[in-house]
Amino acid sequence: MGRMGRFAAMAAIAVALGAMASPLAAEEARAPVTAAQMLEAANAVVPRITPAAAAEMIAKGNTVVIDVREPEEVKAGKVAGAINIPRGMLEFQVDPQSPRFHGNLAMDKNVILYCASGGRAALAGKTLREMGYSNVYNVGGFKNWADSGGAVERP
């Protein structure tokens, strides 16, 4: 094989290897996404509900309330009956296949999320939707819940 033939063969191998490159290659080629864009996308798929609407859903049953704040934040109080699953652990505790799955969850239940202001709850809600939970709602921030007279547990 001549010099040009070897070059062509090496070029073909390089192209083939490039095609088999990291599955993230296409993702890496996209423009970066900002936090604001992520929040906008989350708010588009996770309905924001009022504390009154959330209280009504809770009273009817078949509803789980998840506080996605960090444990340190929860020390100030939480929605009565809420379970604390920090956003950073969410995927592990809502996946029925995970050894860390939280037994109170089920895909057919209403899931109401909240955090300090609603942003983390929206992002967590989008994640839940992507994982198969269909009835997911964002009630916003804990302060809004407490200020509206919602039931609160204090440590």
Q: Helicity level, as a percent range?
A: 40-55%
Name the CATH class of the largest domain: Alpha Beta
DSSP strand tally: 6
Q: What is the count of distinct domains?
A: 2
Average pLDDT level = 88
Give the overall shape, derived from the CA principal axes.
globular
Low-pLDDT parts are none
Radius of gyration: 22 Å
Count the DSSP helices.
8
| Secondary-structure arrangement, i.e. CATH architecture of the largest domain | 3-Layer(aba) Sandwich
The strand line-up of the biggest sheet is 3-1-4-5
Annotated CATH homologous superfamily of the largest domain: Rhodanese-like domain
The ordered string of helix (H) and strand (E) elements is: HHHHEHEEHEHEHE
Compute the separation of the termini in Å: 79 Å
Largest sheet: 4 strands, parallel
Question: Key features?
Answer:
6 strands, globular, single chain, alpha/beta, two-stranded antiparallel ribbon, four-stranded parallel beta sheet
Describe the 3D structure.
This protein has helices at 3-19, 25-29, 35-45, 51-60, 71-74, 90-94, 119-130, 142-147, and strands spanning 63-67, 78-79, 83-84, 110-115, 136-141, 152-153. The protein starts with a helix and ends with a strand. The chain folds into two domains: 1-30, no CATH class; 35-153, Oxidized Rhodanese, domain 1 (3-Layer(aba) Sandwich). The chain has eight helices and six strands. α3 (35-45) crosses α7. α7 links the parallel β4 (110-115) and β5 (136-141). The strands form two sheets. A four-stranded parallel beta sheet has the order 3-1-4-5, with helices on both faces. The chain has a two-stranded antiparallel sheet with strand order 2-6. It is of the alpha/beta class and 155 residues long.
